[in-house]
Amino acid sequence: MSELMDRRLINELLSGHYADPFSLLGMHQTASGLEVRAMLPDATEVWVIETNTGRKCAQLECLDSRGFFHGVVPRRKNPFRYQLAVTWHGQQNLIDDAYRFGPLLAEMDSWLLAEGTHLRPYETMGAHADVIDGVIGTRFSVWAPNAQRVSVVGDFNFWDGRRHPMRFRQEIGVWELFVPGAVQGQLYKFEIIDQQGQLRLKSDPYAFEAQMRPDSASMICGIPPKMEMPEARRRANDFDAPISIYEVHLGSWRRHTDNNFWLSYKELAEQLVPYAKEMGFTHLELMPVNEHPFDGSWGYQPTGLYAPTRRFGTRDEFRNFVAAAHEAGLNVLLDWVPGHFPSDDFALAKFDGTELYEHGDPRQGYHQDWNTLIYNFGRREVSNYLAGNALYWIERFGIDGLRVDAVASMIYRDYSRAEGEWVPNHLGGRENLEAIAFLRYTNRALGTAAPGSITVAEESTDFPGVSRPQEMGGLGFWYKWNLGWMHDTLDYMKLDPVYRKHHHNNMTFGMLYNSTENFVLPLSHDEVVHGKRSILDRMPGDAWQKFANLRAYYGWLFAFPGKKLLFMGNEFAQGKEWNHDVSLDWHLLEGQDNWHHGVQRLVRDLNHTYRAHPALYQLDFDPMGFEWLVVDDFENSVFVFVRRDRDGNELMVVSNFTPVTREHYRFGVTGAGSWREVLNTDSGYYHGSNTGNQGAIHSEAHPSHNREHSVSMTLPPLSTVWLAREAT
Q: From residue 25, how far is each of 136, 161, 257, 275, 359 by CA, in Å?
């Protein structure tokens, strides 16, 4: 190179406008001989050392005071392994040159990433400890196709973007570099000179661990080993299995009483896991644990999809928490947010100066409700990033399933938008066809690569076939939250009992569409915030009636077809709305036995009794598993139905949603026999009035409700009673 050419290229390199550092730096065969060039700011002396012999081969000349060195190795024509002996501030260091290593991405990885079908992109992208040519270091890869230059900066290079500019793989828009000496535990980011020439410092989208807010650097962290899902955990997710989910926000389930600080993952494993097990739940569902900057988002505005939040400990401590849950017989579901992300500058927003992960058109890329950005699901690299993340949590952490947040906001372009604020799809419709394709692809990939795992959709519309296979036109989820059932029944329960007869259908309507989806019945966090009040506080009447109403409602919930979900605090009748900044009101359970203890005991018994009777769960979505016995007693607000298992065993459920005790209440039953009371929400054990039927009732050949046999029983006030049919 001429001196003029040298100066121009060096200036471009230092200013960040030279996108091909490997053509300039490292060892090159030139007309002058074998030349070595290095960018080493603040160095005063540099020697080339032959690795095999340890011999000094040549001293490099400082061509530019900003740290550009070069020199020709005498009497050598062929490239060889070398190191650089660099003197900084009077101290010599022996380092490996990042620019002597070849391309990193394998051809197949490159192909799959470009195609958007890489099942595990996290194995290639991001930061991965590696040993190349005998050198220990970390290989970095980041997608930023429109950047002018990308450097990796971190603890290993003084956060100096001049030191490690990356190689650009133009065919897939990925920048890559192997950095010798970068090791696990060190922090890093990507320094990007974007399309407009602006400098951006970005966290790694694929970071496996990150700093806790307000800091935002990524951390070099080995990828966790794969975990097999044993048969018992697979079966626990089945359609015919008892599923009772305890939904938890880890930051506010319980806190240290002395300083209101969070429990750690280790402490949660020691306290939350045995509590959920003792209460009889089958599954823990964790509100989002991926890294997020704002506590008040509860994790629903994630900036680090691949990194468990450091609020409660390290990545490995979170894995240990999941393992503790499994050891206790609990499956673990994770709340997953692939629909939107916050606009924090250190994260995905305008990653390379363009709308890379998000849509450029705000009518498609900006979410008005949450002030967030919407993923561009039609971009292969984006959908691949998200789908790979779903598999990552299941394969690498042993997560048993994902509850997918806000599906309706993803599949409809006009979600929460007025006319003129949204763009129709290419067919003129309102469906987001790209998001639908992404969800179907993700569910199919999980079904193939992680059999036994499940996905659960929070979907609030009547979109057909959410939990039906793609071959039937469905989205391929395993389960769907039944938000319609939740709203209808809560609307009914908040009424004074005198008015309930006018809204009787609110409790029965759910059976008209029960077989259209595989439903979960959720009393989730969304129902105890933003002025909605706690579930207990929505119940009408004085204190006794509030608790009686709540117990009767829980008895109804656990008997109605569908899998169950309770948000933390619901199980002991939390009195106030949920506040993420403080612990649940565990003090309500201190001291003398009270109504809250009664509700807690009831929920525990509901869980254990539910699990003990296959009639309550085996045929949740099969019409054969349910039959109304009394469906039209509007005046008395009484409902009676039968649940049935595959072998024909029956459990009868009787609910009286008025405070009036109804003696000698007669109704037809499915046949002659005796029915044994297995649970009564009005039991004195739960602080009810202890009204009952001395443990059992017997049928008579007395026609009623168009049936030949009937029973006469006492219906306790504001109660639900479960009765199992005795074998004849």
A: 20, 15, 58, 59, 37
